[in-house]
Amino acid sequence: MSPETLQQLAVLLLWIAPAFLPFVIHPNGPNRFGAPRRTEGFEAAVRSGLARAFDFKGRASRGEYGGFLLLFVGVYCAAALMDGAFGLSGFYIAPMLLLVPYVAVTTRRLHDLNRSGWWQLLALGAGVFVLFFLLAQPSPQPLRQTLRRPVGPVRMAGHR
């Protein structure tokens, strides 16, 4: 094989390999990122996303992520329309101001799926489709509490 062919294969592998990561890496056990957080409605999702704009800890529900994604895409589309209509590219500052809160909400959404926020790096290549697939997944159900047996000897009523 020629060096050019090897180089092309290597680049192809770098683009295809991230697509298989979610199928290979499965987080097990209880969620290590805290208790789930639920929001109701678009307005609550946007308020929560903006209130916790720089909070990369905790969890975000699928509804909270979806509402904030809708806001982010809407603001970007409005800026693009304003740019096309008036030729002013200054409107793109609005989606740029929402970029850090969007990354924070995405990190919290990945935490809700019991994954690290670093999974966002998949968006740098063809893994962006895999990332959106992951973010659309429902939250895992919490483990049901089983009936716990008492520690130590069991004492019956009336016995010593």
UniProtKB/TrEMBL annotation:
Keywords: Membrane, Transmembrane, Transmembrane helix. It holds the Pfam family DUF805. The keyword Membrane applies. The chain crosses the membrane at residues 6-25, 65-82, 88-105, 117-136. This is DUF805 domain-containing protein. It comes from Asticcacaulis currens.
